[in-house]
Amino acid sequence: MLVLLKIALVVALLLVLIRLKWDLGLALVLDSLLVALLFGLSLPRLGRAAFEGATAGETLELVGIVLLVLYLGQFLQRSGAFRRMVDGLRNLVHDARLILAIPSAAIGLLPMMAGAMMGAPIVEEAAKRWDLSSAWKTFYNYWFRHIWEYSWPLYLNLILASAILRIPIKTLCLVQFPFTVIAAGTGLVVLFHKLPYVPKESNNGRTWQNIAAVVLGIWPILLTIILVFAFKMGMLLALAVSSLLTQIFTRLNFRERWATVREGFSLRIALLTVALMVFKRVLETSGALDAVGRVVDPHGPSAYILLFAAPFLVAVLTGVNQAFVTITFPLLVPIIGRDKPDVVLALFAYVSGFAGILLSPAHLCLALTADYFKANLGDVYRILIGRVAVVFGAALLVLILTRVF
User: Fold this and answer.
1) Rounded distance between C-alpha atoms, residue 386 and residue 388, angstroms
2) For residues 106 and 211, what is the distance between their CA atoms, to the nearest angstrom?
3) 3-state secondary structure of 95
4) By the 8 A CB rule, do 167 and 368 touch?
5) Contact (Cβ atoms closer than 8 angstroms) between residue 165 and residue 333
6) What is the pTM of this model?
């Protein structure tokens, strides 16, 4: 029980620092010091663990992946490719109801802070065909923007979870892809049930031109996915190839190219990634993870409760997508498995955490979208909670079925 109390203090410090608006990377460094203090890690061993964590091959690879993802996002925005893709989608849609879903979902392919705001004006325009409340417009834009975060390999949540749990990113994405389908299906059921069919008012451009606009709008992302899944290329190399080709084929001038590279590089995110891997290595070196494994039965009820409660509560309290992974997943390694991680347990923990993210009042996308549409958050929650429960219920059902049968 003393071990769990120490772990609770470690988590509590992170949550307090995040609530005080401290940088997550700095908070992880301070928490690493607390772990060393609580679990009796000497200063030389702490320094060695920190050095090993910061310079490990998996750390450097992870930093490279994260920075290249940020670069591609910046390139697609600055080049106007993403805007052209959304316009092409709008012209291809024959059922006007889908304009409330598809552009937001398409924008969700590009990881970015407060990305839901890009789709909000499109939803606002499309919603004029019906008498929709602000809460419902907020829900449609917010929900479809986030359906990809269960399985799209460019999301930092998944990249970090893969690195921490040592589950290949391809495996993690394929296992969790059904939950993207479930989330999309849940939203579409609500959409088609609530709104009557309205045909598209006009057709701007030929179909093949619009399809080309969609494909060309995100070709670096599509190429990366093809290289990873079809050609079995590592994520870092695939992103590097795609990034290099953007520089070769872009029409941006030198100043715009340099601005894209400069703005796509985030030292803060790079240091956060290093701090996470240092935190993970310090936890391993201190014996904290082994202690958790001895106290919590990996196959007992307490383990399943922890798999849900830890990610969910951290996500609700912080509203930061990366926080529930970086804070709780290193602590859940003894339960999920160190040598042979259980992908079902990883899935359950991830879906639990993301349920908390979707419901967190601190989640930037939710706060900004509700503000844009002038929606009451209480009304949004009345719509949102049931749909989040459907996706979480599916994960819980998978967990029960795989443990009973």
Assistant:
1) 6
2) 13
3) strand
4) no
5) yes
6) 0.78
Q: Which residue has the tokens 């834009």?
A: 141
Residue 29 falls inside a structural domain: no
User: What is the DSSP-derived secondary structure letter of residue 112?
Assistant: -
**Structure token digits, residue 147:** 């359906």
Q: Which residues of 310-337 are buried (b: 16+ CB within 10 A; e: fewer)?
A: bbbbbbbbbbbbbbbbbbbbbbbbbbbb
Residues 353-381 as b or e (16 or more Cβ within 10 Å = b):
bbbbbbbbebbbbbebbbebbebeeebbb
Cβ atoms of residues 217 and 86 within 8 Å = yes
Helices (H), 296-342: 301-318, 321-336
DSSP 8-class letter at 108: T
**Domains in the chain, number:** 1
Tell me the pLDDT of the chain (405 aa) as tens digits: 677 788 788 878 877 887 787 877 888 889 889 989 988 888 899 999 999 989 988 889 888 888 887 788 778 777 777 677 767 777 777 787 887 888 788 878 877 655 566 667 777 877 878 888 999 999 999 999 999 999 998 888 999 999 999 999 999 999 999 999 999 999 999 999 988 887 665 555 577 887 887 787 778 888 888 888 888 888 889 889 998 998 888 777 878 888 888 877 888 878 888 887 888 888 788 887 677 666 666 667 888 888 998 889 888 877 777 878 988 898 898 889 888 899 999 999 999 999 999 998 777 788 778 888 888 888 998 999 999 999 999 999 999 998 866
Q: Is residue 319 part of a domain?
A: yes
Distant-in-sequence, close-in-space partners of 151: CB < 8 Å, separation ≥ 6 = 158, 173, 174, 176, 177, 179, 180
- Residues 93 and 90: their CA atoms lie apart, in Å, by 6
Q: Which residues pair with 95 in a beta bridge?
A: 199
Q: What is the C-alpha to C-alpha distance for residues 358 and 383, in angstroms, rounded to an integer?
A: 12
Return the structure tokens found at 109: 């392919």
For residue 199, what is the DSSP state?
Answer: B
Q: Does any domain span residue 353?
A: yes
Task: Look at residue 393 and tell me if it is in a domain.
Answer: yes
Block residue for tokens 């079995």:
232
Domain that holds residue 153: 137-198+290-405
Rounded CA gap, 211 and 90, in Å?
Answer: 11
